[in-house]
Amino acid sequence: MNNIKNQVLPNKKLWLVGVIIIAIFYSCVPAIQVVQENKEVPNQFDTQSIDTTNTASVKWKDYFTDPYLNELIETALKNNQELKITLQEVEIARNEVKAKKGEYLPFVDFQAGAETEKVGRFTSQGANDANTEIEPGREFPEPLPSYNLGLQARWELDVWKKLRNAKKATYQRYIASVEGQNFLVTNLIAEIANSYYELLTIDNQLSIVEENIDIQSNALKIVNLQKQAARVTELAVQRFEAEVLHTQSLQYDIKQQITETENKINFLVGRFPQPILRSSASFYNLVPESLSVGVPSQLLENRPDVRQAEMELEASKLDVKVAKARFFPSLGISAGIGLEAFNLSYITKTPESLFYSVVGDIAGPLINRNEIKALYFNANAKQLQAVYNYERTVLNAYLEVANQLSNISNLEKSYHLKSLKVDALTRSIDISNTLFKSARADYMEVLLTQRDALESKFELVETKKAQMNAVVNMYRALGGGWN
Q: Which three-class secondary structure state does DSSP give residue 384?
């Protein structure tokens, strides 16, 4: 009975010492600031009813109805170089997950070697070898060769989950990289659509300029006839001619814009310059799609950038746990087994040539832990950054939708009024020409009317482009396109 007590008592003492050591390490972990992310968003968007129907769930092939635009988007998703770069970043992140997973599994290495050793005879080892016989009448050879082959294993016991948390953090960043790729797809689709509508806008501006050149050229002919009849002076002729030349020069500026916009689209599509197929004639007939914005909480699921920020936040929380685990002792086990002999003919003779070893070790920081503390504080600071970045991303997503809601509504009213303005100024061109022929209006009124009509048509086309861009940007803001 006394023997049993004597055996149990030292074990209790060892456990007590272990508990005291762990308590000391825990007490040495510095305190850090903890901030929880705010995931609260308003229940609904302003002026919108609570309806969970959301345009973000519509696939881009169904959202965009122009076949030329859809073909450009499909080609870009296959060829865009930036998207391909991002795909490789996702692959890198996936491989890092595998690497982290392997760190908390045992490592087993195979080794084989050969060496020759000559020790001094007047040493303890040399004197011992000289007086030792391998077999009767045979001493150890000098110099002494050595051949070995075997397995070495090492394993760090992940008691504090340092390695597992590091692997989980890497996995969260891999998911974040996938969401980053989805966000790039959303932006790429939106950029191509906006550039396509910009190209249609410029095409129609060129048509307006060419139409205006015809109108101004006819007016110039009338002025020349009236000059011959002594009803106007040379000044009127020169002013009309200057206006025609000015408008003619505009068409070359617009043609340059067409070339640059086509090349911008070709770059996004990932190909060398070539003409962009499009249907410019139907630009005025484009009607913005009716949009369902859903509820703000859906942005947390639909927006890839919000989910990416969330995954980065979860990874940063795990990084703090990993940094905290560095304050505690690490436990390791290493073992080896194999065969070793000074002659290859003896290497298979067991158990004489057999060797093995098992070693357990514990190591922990005790003095000068400034580096560990600094890394711990840095991990905490990065986690706080991730919290604020997540909240900022959510706020930005909400504001983008709210801005586009207001933009779509205001553009609709603006387009209606500008179309009425264009109609009025178009009629005024004929009126001014009639009055000018009957000498009831001077040439400056005709010139100003033509210039105002040209500017108003430009404004109307630009407003139509802004309408289509707002529809595209709303689709992107809601998180559509990537799925």
A: helix
With respect to residue 16, please indicate whether it lies within any of the assigned structural domains: no
Instruction: Write the CATH number for 387.
Output: 1.20.1600.10
Tell how far CA 138 is from the center of its chain.
73
Helix or strand run (H / E) with residue 333:
strand 330-341
Nearest residue to 312 (alpha-carbon basis) of 182, 183, 175, 185: 175
Write the pLDDT tens digit of every residue in 170-228. Answer: 999 999 999 999 999 999 999 999 999 999 999 999 999 999 899 888 888 888 888 88
Most confident of 141-150, 233-242, 360-369, 454-463: 454-463
Which pair of tokens denotes residue 197?
Answer: 């509508």
- pLDDT-derived band at 459, boundaries 50, 70, 90: very high
Q: Beta-strand (E) ranges in 65-159?
A: 107-117, 133-135, 138-139, 144-157
Question: Nearest to residue 308, comparing CAs of 180, 174, 398?
Answer: 180
209: how many CB neighbours lie within 10 A of its CB? Answer: 21
Give the DSSP H or E segment for 357: strand 354-363
Distance from C-alpha of 9 to C-alpha of 22, rounded to nearest angstrom: 20
- Which candidate, 300, 271, 278, places its Cα nearest to that of 393? 300
Residues 6+ apart with CB under 8 A from 441: 432, 435
Q: CB under 8 Å to 112, separation ≥6 — which residues? A: 148, 149, 150
| pLDDT in the model for residue 8 | 43
Q: Look at the chain and report how many structural domains it folds into.
A: 2
Q: Which domain holds residue 453?
A: 30-104+158-329+371-477
CA atoms of 161 and 399, how far apart (whole Å): 40
Task: Report residue 222 as tokens.
Answer: 């009338």
The identity of residue 199, as a single letter, is: L
Tell me the C-alpha to C-alpha distance, in Å, between residue 39 and each of 33, 130, 182: 19, 79, 22
